[in-house]
Amino acid sequence: MNTTEPFLSVEEGLLDYVGKCCMDNGSYCGWRFQEGGLPSIRDTFWALRIYRKLSRKPPSAGRTRRWLESELLSILEERDPEKTVYAFCSFRMINLAFPAGKDWLSPLSEHLFPVGTTVLEIEGKIRASWLWLVLEQHSPKPLPSIRNPLAHTLERWMSDVREKRIVLDLPGFGALVEGLRAAGYFDKRSVERVLSVYREPDGGYRLTPDSQAESMECLWWGMRLERLCFGGTLQSLTALEEKMSSYKARKGGFGPRPGAIPDLPSTGMALDLLRNIHPRPVH
User: Fold this and answer.
1) Which of 101, 106, 152, 165 is deepest in the core (most CB within 10 A)?
2) Taking the model in full, what pTM does it have?
3) Which residues, in sequence order, are CB contacts of 79 under 8 Å at separation 6+?
4) 62 torsion bin: left (phi>0), alpha (psi -120 to 50), beta (else)
5) What are the backbone dihedrals phi and psi of residue 194, each rounded to the nearest 5 degrees, phi first?
6) How far apart are CA 161 and CA 123, in angstroms?
7) Helices marked H in 163-260
8) HEC letters along 88-128
9) What superkingdom does the record give (predicted)?
């Protein structure tokens, strides 16, 4: 995609790609036409989010509702914060009530403690902590006995990042910032300083400060944090649009890397970025 391509044609391509990812049971799978493609709560979340962002009703909404209802118990039994967030948000987007009487929040804390020791472990704990805090905000039964020590742990990790005792990848740093925001803390100056080491001069964002690797997820997190701190400038948005052209696939979706097969998370992230560039799409 380039700056001369109308947003409408991009929108139509996204809708065509997402529609082809729908399974017979109403769930979604980005590998719909690939061998071994299975229904995915993550892909279903991103598909519903794309339809919602484009103000379109999912064409198989009834089947999607039934699939979500049938899968919820097994998702909650896994006690995975990420899958639970995908399910919770999917329920809300398709106007289903998430169970209010069942304590599904406290079992998820098993993934939060003990905290990790390696950077990879810490990044996993940071993401799980952020998602748990998001869920706790919507829970009818808040759990301050878990939230408060969790917030202090995130603060300690942010201090380690500021002092360069640990170096996170950009999605990990983004999750740390969002986790702290969910806990009621936001140090804009620290975020600005750390974010600058991930920024590329051509409008992209690198995975780590000492890496040249880029991805759609890095673009998404970079712009999310950029807008959080600065609001986004015309120059940065123009550079971002040029950068994104290499991620667009012929099938209408966007891939995780330039030239890669499209997937639903990358396509959903691309739509978020496009909406930052074109806040009022043509209809």
Assistant:
1) 106
2) 0.91
3) 107, 108, 110, 111
4) alpha
5) -70, -40
6) 12
7) 170-182, 188-195, 216-230, 234-244
8) HHHHHHCCCCCCCCCCCCHHHHHHCCCCCCCHHHHHHHHHH
9) Bacteria
Closest of 132, 157, 127, 126 to residue 147, by C-alpha: 132
* pLDDT at residue 236 in the model: 64
Question: Each residue of 117-151: pLDDT tens digit?
Answer: 788 889 999 999 999 999 999 888 889 999 999 99
Cα dihedral across residues 107, 108, 113, 118: positive or negative: positive
- Rounded Cα gap, residues 60 and 53, in angstroms: 17
- Residue 39 · residue 64 · CB < 8 Å: no
CB-CB contact of 113 with 122 (8 Å)? no
How far is residue 118 from each of residues 26, 121, 127, 155, 266, measured CA to CA in Å? 39, 5, 14, 17, 27
Separation CA 122–CA 116 (nearest Å): 5
The torsion angles phi and psi of 28, rounded to 5 degrees, stand at -130, 150
User: Where do the domains of the chain lie?
Assistant: 25-104
Tell me if residue 132 falls in helix, strand or coil: helix
Which residue(s) pair with 248 in the sheet? 254
Using an 8 Å Cβ cutoff, are 246 and 1 in contact?
A: no
Q: What is the CA radius of gyration of the chain?
A: 19
